[in-house]
Protein: LPPG:FO 2-phospho-L-lactate transferase
Organism: Candidatus Nitrososphaera evergladensis SR1
Amino acid sequence: MIAVIAGGTGSVKLVRGLALLLEGKRPKEEGMSVIANVGDNIWLYGLYICPDIDTLVYGLAGILDEKRGWGIRGDTFSFLDQMKRSGVDAWFGLGDRDLATHVLRTEMMKRGGKSLTEVTAYFAEKFRVAADSKVLPATDSEVETMIMTYDDNDGDAAVAAGEMHLQEFWVKNAGRPKVRGVRYRGIEQAQATKQALAAIKNADRIIIAPGNPVSSIGPTLALKDIKAALAKRRADVVAVSPMIGNAAVSGPAAKYLSAVGVQASAAGVAEFYKEVAGSIVIDGRDREVASKTIKRLDMDVYETNITMQGRQDEVRLGRYLLLLLRKSR
């Protein structure tokens, strides 16, 4: 059994590759539990939207719009167009088919009393995600990743300032504001689900996927009970770096890492994960720069090509990790 701490586009690629490799295996021996980030969840248009959870479910169901990296393949956007015609600043993209997920989720939670974990399992079943690949929200509580930005943005009056939700920063403002900090609103009251904790406890090996450490993985690690559970299993946890050199494979990881005082590099990622991961996989191009630094953190370092440009790359990296995990038993 494998547990994957996941969030973001890099995570869904790896999870999809692992699922293909595990397909047809007996669930009790080779199943996968994906513990999903909830920090990017947001209330918009009266709906509870869970981008990372939905991306993982859609990806495992084979209906993800891979070109965009989010939403459902072949979707239309009549709802969004009508919202704009009605005078709404509809900056967050929701496709018409995707909208059904958010409407039903909100209805099931607000009127039906269902937890986010129960609703996620419902959609996984309806979209025919393989029974041995479970998507588990890290918590059923509402946690929001908030980005704190500087008021001064080099004189660009069009760039918003102050504290804003991650989605506002990345989608509405295209990631342009200068970042001075990141916090997880609601994290103090939040508790991990019993399903997520059981997945960590029962896993043979645990993978931290190559998502943005601060915004895609950080909210999950900020849950005290999950961090403690991972720390107990540290020797069994392998993290995959999302960095090559000083740049992220995709997204604003470098910007967020710098904002929280962590070096934007594979070595910085290792520093971020050192309490919960006993080993890390970095890109071969970072061999000379990062390896010696990371080993000082009492972490084993492995090197491979971490980029995933298509399905072959997703399977290749997944196979590398599965072989690595088997060798380390």
